[in-house]
């Protein structure tokens, strides 16, 4: 009996040791798996950044997220902008975030169709960018401001930063073109939701200084980082512009937005077939603003 108990204890002891060893091995395996998965996630993240093709220091990607939603919200409340059958549709094609390697292609296409558009530009001082600013103006388009840096954390930190940035882009445009731009588009729109300062502070400043800001009520879909095709873009724009008297169409002049360039000729043709007037934004353009203050 005694032997039996001793044998039992030994077996119990051994099985405990084996269990502990087995558990240690499992933990080690799991640890390795976690390491591999972490690496995979890291790779996926950096790949995503490469696809988006923008530098880490700007917020071009972030403004994409709410572009379509912001347009929808605006249109829900802007009943006075709903088109009747007899209305001539006014369409304002707007290109944000340039100059880029695609600016000249966009300008060539607009020139082919003799159509004028609006370019909401950022601050770049290289020779090509300076030439693009000038070409925009020389060919009769509207040059407008979209901040110098496009960095939310800087521009929207306080009114002082905002006005310094505004002055910088206004001066650069003046230097390149001789035009004192008085038209602005907030990076991310007036409804951006990321500004650390209440947007009404900046809106009030622009209003007091005779600078008109424009958001958009038609999102072409090219703000997204998801793959979009030129036919998606055409479909997005055409399905919306028929509904409104005034359509301010959000598009982008950026290196990685090739489909926007590809879509442009057909888009212009379809808009013209629809009888729409394609116009550059001016002082008299009906304001399309997501957020306003009294
Ligand atoms: Zn932008």
* Ligand catalogue: zinc ion
Structural Rg: 27 Å
Tell me the overall shape: elongated
Question: Main β-sheet, in a few words?
Answer: 6 strands, parallel
Q: What is the assembly state of the chains in this entry?
A: single chain
State the share of residues found in helices, binned by percent.
Answer: 40-55%
Q: What fraction of the residues are assigned to beta strands by DSSP? A: 5-15%
Number of strands: 8
Order of helices and strands: HHEHEHEHHEHEEHEHE
- Total helix count? 9
Structural class: alpha/beta
Q: Ends: how far apart?
A: 96 Å
- What is the mean pLDDT? 89
Low-confidence stretches: 46-57
Write a compact overview of the structure shown.
By secondary structure, the chain is an alpha/beta fold.
Structure description:
The protein has 294 residues and is of the alpha/beta class. It contains 9 helices and 8 strands. It has helices at residues 2-52, 67-77, 103-112, 127-138, 152-155, 159-177, 199-208, 230-241, 258-273, and strands at residues 90-96, 118-121, 142-145, 183-184, 212-213, 218-219, 246-252, 277-278. The strands form 2 sheets. Strands 1, 2, 3, 6, 7 and 8 form a 6-stranded parallel β-sheet that branches. A two-stranded parallel ribbon has the order 4-5. The radius of gyration is 27 Å and the shape is elongated. Mean pLDDT is 89; it is low at 46-57. The structure holds zinc ion (ZN).
